[in-house]
Structures are given as C-alpha cells and as structure tokens.
Specification:
A hairpin with a 2-residue loop joins strand 6 and strand 7. The strands form 3 sheets. A 3-stranded antiparallel β-sheet has the order 1-3-2. It has one domain. With about 220 residues, the chain is of the alpha+beta class. It is about 30% helix and about 15% strand. The structure holds iron/sulfur cluster (2 copies). The site of one iron/sulfur cluster has 7 residues, from loops.
Length: about 220
C-alpha cells in the first residue's frame, strides 16, 4: 500500500539527528567545488516517495519534481511506481526541516536478515565512490542510528512493499559480501554487528561502538 502524507509526516519527524557530530560536508565539499556531494543533484539525484514530494511541496517551495532527461534519462527506467525524482534549491538554500527522507538517511539504507527481519542500517555501498564517509573511520552518531532504526521499523509496519523491496536489496548485499568472504557491518542501536552472509551459524556478532567501514533506492 502506498505511503500516505500523514505516514510520511510521521516518518520525517523521527529523523532529526545529523549523521556525524561534525559537518561531514567538510570531507567532500572542498574537492567538489564547495558543494557537498549528496546535495548536488547532478551527482546524487534525490528519490522521494510521491506522497513525500506532495507533502514537502505543501510545506515549502524547496522541492520541485525532476524528470530525468539526457545523461540521467536511464534513471527513469529504474524508478518504482511509488517514487519520484526531485531536486531542491541547493545546499545554500537548504531548509533542514524540509529535507527529504533520503536527505536525512544518506548514506545509509536498512538491512533485513534472511528472514526479512529488520536488523539495522548499512552504508549505501554503491555510493562509496561519491561519499567519503562510507570508507572513512569517522564515528557515526548513535542518535542518528537510533532514529534511522526507529524510522525504518515504523516504515516497514506501514508498508509491506517497502519491506519486500529492501529485503531484496539486503539479499543482493549478502551476495556481494559473500563473494568476498566478508561479513556485513550493520549499525544497530546496540553498536555495529558484523553479520555473516550465510544463513548457517557464522562468526559471532561483534560490537565496537559506532564505527565501521563502509543500495539507494535505485
Ligand atoms: S554524507 Fe557523504 S556525500 Fe554527504 S556531505 Fe557527508 S561525506 Fe559528503
Ligand atoms: S534538501 Fe538540503 S540536505 Fe537535501 S539535498 Fe537539498 S541541500 Fe542537501
């Protein structure tokens, strides 16, 4: 069932904490013309839920719908029916209270285990070439992790399709890590767990605070 505007409002309200205690734009903006990479739509094009864009456009003039053409036209084929591309006015005009779910959760995605149970969040590893935070050892804010976990749990209560979609992303991630024989670092409310990719009993989970090494919806 598609997410409603009230549902989106509830989810947005759960996400307030920044991803790090410092401005992580200082990691990427200096080498990117002064623009944080994830706030440059030419590099990271925001994907919003249709109801989310409608809600944010009702609240503010920050966002407008974007139809990919030219170099990013291929993205249209990858978009789901519930999604819409959108661009904001740019980082110099950001309105924190009107950021999207994608803004507030980047560069993380939810991780669900073999049984489709939500466990925590993982870096969006396919963005590692763009976001230096993913391959850094900088501490991720525990409050950010807690809020993202709360948001995704609520999201999956509200929308079974989203659960199924991200369960598929998590399967893909297990295949990628499994090929390399690596465990997956998953950020949970109780620290970072190194989860095995196979269902069989693997190495015991490890907790080491909120540090870890590093799929957007597309
Ligand atoms: S999340 Fe990544 S891409 Fe975005 S500002 Fe921080 S370091 Fe840069
Ligand atoms: S709304 Fe703000 S955080 Fe989101 S992409 Fe635009 S400038 Fe970046």
């Amino acid at each position: 069932m598609a997410l409603s505007r009230p549902a989106i409002a509830e989810l947005l309200a759960l996400l307030q904490a920044p991803v790090t205690a410092f401005d992580c734009g200082t990691l990427c903006a200096p080498g990117n013309g002064g623009v944080p990479v994830c706030c440059n739509s030419a590099q990271v094009l925001p994907v919003l839920y249709k109801a989310e864009l409608a809600l944010l456009q009702k609240r503010s003039k920050l966002w407008r719908k974007h139809v990919p053409t030219g170099a990013d036209a291929h993205l249209r084929d990858q978009a789901r029916g519930c999604d819409v591309f959108a661009v904001c006015k740019g980082h110099q005009h950001c309105e924190r209270e009107h950021r999207s779910l994608a803004c507030r959760t980047f560069p993380f995605e939810p991780y669900l285990d073999h049984d489709g149970v939500f466990v925590g969040i993982v870096f969006a590893f396919d963005q590692a070439h763009l976001c230096p935070l993913i391959t850094s050892e900088h501490a991720i804010s525990p409050q950010f992790v807690q809020q993202c976990c709360a948001m995704w749990r609520r999201m999956f209560e509200l929308d079974a399709d989203e659960r199924a979609f991200y369960a598929g992303c998590s399967r893909t991630l297990r295949r990628q890590f499994g090929r390399r024989g690596e465990s997956i670092p998953v950020f949970t409310e109780h620290g970072v767990r190194a989860l095995p990719t196979a269902r069989r009993r693997g190495p015991r989970s490890q907790t080491d605070g909120t540090r870890a090494r590093a799929c957007t919806k597309l």
